[in-house]
């Protein structure tokens, strides 16, 4: 399928996802008001590893904070812990894809950890899930990304 056709499908899927999330917006709004989005950097258990633990919904509002944290990371192996990310929007998907491209072009590895059902489905529906190595826990990602 050509790039333009795939782009149209991705846009349609994102619109459907946004609509589904709108139906559940009261719960998400409450969560994000009480817990602002944060990125907590830490050193991995092995040399050359960096863990970015994300807290809160990854959205158009919070993506710049995530992107800034990515730019500060130069570790050979980057682990993004998304255990505490309840949802993400299309801009956040773009930020994750940019992180993948950046790591891939510079010979680094990227792993995503703790994707909940909603986040995993968004990545699957948009067709970007195969780009990412995913792991249930940070410890498993640290062991695999050496």
Characteristic key phrases:
146 residues, Transcription Regulator spoIIAA, 5-stranded mixed sheet, 6 helices, 5 strands
Give the helices and strands, then pairings.
Blueprint (H helix, E strand, L loop, with lengths): L2 H20 L2 H10 L3 E6 L5 E7 L7 H9 L5 E8 L5 H16 L3 E5 L3 H9 L7 E3 L2 H7 L2
Parallel strand pairs: 2-3, 3-4, 4-5
Antiparallel strand pairs: 1-2
Helix pairs in contact: 3-4
Helical content class: 40-55%
| Total count of helical runs of at least 4 residues | 6
Radius of gyration: 15 Å
List the uncertain runs.
9-32
CATH topology: Transcription Regulator spoIIAA
Shape: globular
Q: Number of DSSP strands?
A: 5
CATH class group: Alpha Beta
Which strands sit side by side, in order, in the main sheet? Answer: 1-2-3-4-5
The CATH homologous superfamily is named STAS domain
The total domain count is: 1
Corresponding CATH architecture = 2-Layer Sandwich
Arithmetic mean of pLDDT? 84
Strand content: 15-25%
Secondary-structure element series: HHEEHEHEHEH
Distance between the termini: 35 Å
* Main beta-sheet strand count, sense and barrel state: 5 strands, mixed
Structural class of the secondary elements?
A: alpha/beta
